[in-house]
Write a structure and sequence with these properties.
This protein is α/β, with parallel strands linked by helices. The protein has helices at 2-40, 90-100, 110-115, 117-120, 144-162, 178-186, 207-217, 235-239, 241-250, 258-261; strands at 66-67, 76-82, 105-108, 128-131, 168-169, 190-192, 196-197, 222-227, 254-255. GO terms for molecular function: hydrolase activity, acting on carbon-nitrogen (but not peptide) bonds.
């Protein structure tokens, strides 16, 4: 009986040893499969990664702010316009803003800046320009190196146009990925989204109705998203821009750039 017990014990030990060895092999294989699969997706080192390689990270100040609105009790609002400049629409926006002495923040696409610099040259005094990528690709699909190269190219185009390197980034579609965050940190950007978006498709051929909707929803610190490029339906918002400005002023609001709203070191540009 003792002999049998010892025999079974040896078999058990052998079986367990084989299971452990097999488990180690499976684990190693699984780890390798995970690594290969996620490189192919890619996640590791891809759009989801917030680091670039294994060395010291070159990330500017080492921190990144992401904001949707300004934290203020004052009746301040920032108008922002994405995707330009373009000769068909941007001058219309600039004309309206100049007429009413309203500053705004334009998140410009670098390739558009290169093509249409003359549209906005010498017309941006009092306004602010932020980076909106080079060609409006979805940066959340790029790895860290690609996202940085894209943003750097646009950064340089905007700096050449304005004489001031942009300090703000709004990624196309508002899409964020780890690689976008890493690239933005490298460029010492503040990442700006929005808290209220113009909704042109809800007000076809009704600029006044659209303006009333926006005016009613603005709160202190609101960052409003608009566009000075795009489908023709967006013209509903631009044609109602004067009503929007007048409506917000009647509610006691003052228009400022995004940086002024967020308390950046640049002086606030008001409308009074």
């Amino acid at each position: 009986m003792a002999e049998g017990a010892r025999g079974w014990g040896r078999r058990d030990l052998l079986r367990r040893g084989l299971l452990v060895a097999g488990g180690v092999a499976i684990g190693a294989g699984t780890s390798e499969a995970w690594r290969v699969t996620h490189r192919r997706i890619p996640i590791a080192g891809g759009p989801a990664g917030t680091t670039l390689g294994n060395g010291q990270q070159d990330v500017g100040s080492g921190a990144l702010d992401v904001v949707w609105s300004g934290q203020t009790n004052q009746r301040l609002v920032a108008l922002t316009f994405d995707d330009g400049p373009a000769p068909q629409w941007t001058p219309m926006v600039l004309d309206t803003l100049a007429q009413h002495r309203v500053p705004a923040t334009f998140f410009m696409v670098g390739a558009q800046v290169r093509r249409h610099a003359d549209v906005v040259r010498d017309r941006l005094a009092g306004h602010e320009v932020g980076n909106h990528s080079w060609e409006h690709r979805d940066l959340a699909e790029l790895d860290a190196a690609e996202a940085y190269d894209d943003l750097r190219r646009s950064h340089d185009a905007i700096a050449d146009l304005t004489g001031v390197p942009p300090a703000l980034l709004r990624p196309p579609y508002g899409h964020l990925g780890g690689a976008v965050l890493h690239a933005a940190a490298r460029l010492d950007y503040r990442l700006v989204l929005w808290s209220l978006q113009m909704v042109e498709r809800e007000f076809p051929d009704d600029p006044a109705g659209h303006a009333r909707r926006i005016v009613a929803e603005v709160r202190p610190g609101t960052i409003v998203l608009g566009h000075d490029v795009g489908a023709r339906r967006r013209l509903v918002a631009l044609r109602g821009l004067t009503d929007m400005i007048n409506g917000l002023r009647s509610r006691g609001y003052t228009f400022v750039t995004v940086s002024a709203l967020l308390g950046a070191r640049m002086a606030a540009t008001t409308t009074r």
